[in-house]
């Protein structure tokens, strides 16, 4: 695996192979949260039901083999970044998602007010 | 998240929302709030939908029943890098969004969890107040 420095990250769009396992996990968690929050927002965040929460989690790529517990539901509702990493497999194919995520960050940074 | 990828903050005095999130240790929720409020203040008039979305995201932070979501913790040199007032000005924030972001950044600079939570609750109060005004 390539040794990635902070300068590398800002200088070019990395491939998944350039990131450490923890870095990939962090990206997955943020992607999950972004998609989950958007899903909740689109479904009226204050009145979303448990069934809708389950559906949104699945749409976001969180595959949890076991039945969701009340605690799981509460953590999904809170958009807990750690839930995705702890509860199940998330986004097995990371490459396209990672590219999009990094590109989004760079675009947002470029637009920021000086 | 403790395993967040470290991205070197921009130099030459330019401050971006992403730099602020990194230096002040803001995770998904609080970082998202800062980003949404910054984006909301870029339009004239301010984008009410983005402010409402920021409020909903901050509410998610407080909705964490088991305190799984970590409180923000600023880097040791964050205040020296840029104070909350300088950041608010640099990001073009004003009025209620400016107050809310100031409270969030203050929260990250506190060492005690109780103080941190109190500042964050003040930020939420500001956004709740803004939401009420928008509803009128």
Structural overview:
The complex is a heterodimer of chains A (114) and B (136). Chain A has six helices and two strands; from the N terminus they run αααβααβα. In chain A, 61% of the residues lie in helices and 4% in strands. In chain A, strands 1-2 form a two-stranded antiparallel sheet. With 136 residues, chain B is mainly alpha-helical. Chain B has seven helices and no strands. In chain B, helix 2 (28-40) packs antiparallel against helix 3. Chain B is globular. Mean pLDDT of chain B is 85; it is low at 1-12. The A-B interface holds A 6-7, 9-10, 19, 22-23, 25-27, 29-30, 33-34, 37, 40-41, 45-46, 71, 74-75, 77-83, 105, 108-109, 112-114 and B 1, 3-8, 10, 14-18, 27-29, 32, 35, 38, 42, 53, 56-57, 60-61, 63-66, 68-69, 90-92.
Q: What is the count of β-strands of chain A?
A: 2
* End-to-end Cα distance of chain A: 35 Å
- SSE sequence of chain B, one letter per element: HHHHHHH
Assembly state of the chains shown:
heterodimer
Tell me what portion of residues of chain A adopts beta-strand conformation. Answer: under 5%
SS class of chain B: mainly alpha
Query: Outline of chain B, from the CA principal axes?
Result: globular
- Kindly estimate the percentage of residues of chain B that lie in beta strands according to DSSP: under 5%
The portion of residues assigned to helices of chain A is 55-70%
Structural class of chain A: mainly alpha
Q: Which word captures the global form of chain A?
A: globular
Which bin fits the share of residues in helices of chain B?
A: 55-70%
Number of helices of chain B: 7
User: Number of DSSP helices of chain A?
Assistant: 6
The low-confidence runs of chain B, each spanning 5 or more residues with pLDDT under 50, are 1-12
Poorly predicted residue ranges of chain A: 1-11, 91-95
């Amino acid at each position: 695996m390539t040794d990635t420095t902070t300068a590398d990250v800002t200088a070019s769009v990395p491939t998944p192979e350039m990131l450490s396992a923890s870095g990939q996990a962090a990206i997955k968690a943020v992607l999950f949260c972004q998609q989950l929050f958007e899903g909740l927002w689109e479904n009226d965040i204050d009145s979303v039901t448990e069934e809708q929460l389950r559906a949104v989690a699945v749409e976001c790529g969180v595959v949890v083999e076991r039945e969701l517990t009340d605690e799981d539901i509460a953590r999904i509702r809170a958009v807990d970044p750690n839930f995705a990493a702890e509860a199940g497999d998330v986004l097995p194919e990371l490459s396209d998602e990672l590219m999009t995520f990094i590109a989004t960050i760079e675009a947002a940074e470029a637009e920021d007010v000086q | 998240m403790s395993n967040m990828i470290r991205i070197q903050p921009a130099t030459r005095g330019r401050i971006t929302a992403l730099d602020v999130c990194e230096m002040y240790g803001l995770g998904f929720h609080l970082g998202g709030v800062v980003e949404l409020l910054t984006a909301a203040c870029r339009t004239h008039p301010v984008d009410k939908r983005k402010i409402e979305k920021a409020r909903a995201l901050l509410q998610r932070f407080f909705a964490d029943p088991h305190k799984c979501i970590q409180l923000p913790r600023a880097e040791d040199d964050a205040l020296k890098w840029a104070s909350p007032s300088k950041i608010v000005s640099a990001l073009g924030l004003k009025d209620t969004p400016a107050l809310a972001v100031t409270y969030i950044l203050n929260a990250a600079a506190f060492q005690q969890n109780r103080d941190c939570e109190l500042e964050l609750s003040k930020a939420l109060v500001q956004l709740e107040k803004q939401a009420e005004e928008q509803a009128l």
